[in-house]
Amino acid sequence: MKALYSTKATVTGGRAGKATLSDNDLSINMVPPGSDKEGNNPEQMFAIGYSACFDGALGAVKQMEKATFDSTTEIEVDLLQGDSHDYKLAAKIYVVGENTELSADEFQKLVEKAHQVCPYSKATRGNIDVEVTSEVK
Q: Residues 11-23: pLDDT tens digits?
């Protein structure tokens, strides 16, 4: 495979530090989840990235299947803690389809195809629990 794009993130101070990108002026104040401090946490960044990637993958599936619809993708990311320092992530993908003649079942099948195509879904497959649901409005 050829690389289409590369970027590098640098974080100093972990969950209570600063994050920057090598190819952008974005600088994020990192804060632990639930700290009520101003900033963002890694789970929020993951949810944003996964949502954008998944909706893009759904757009590719839409084009391949010659389907017509508008979509909005929401991804809820949960940070889970087991015993001691046993942490893991879980994700719930929820996609709303609008302006379409597709049935709810037909739309769900396209969403499931997007789950097979999306690079984030591929990266997390077998590593985190992911639930994929949709509805047509």
A: 999 999 999 999 9
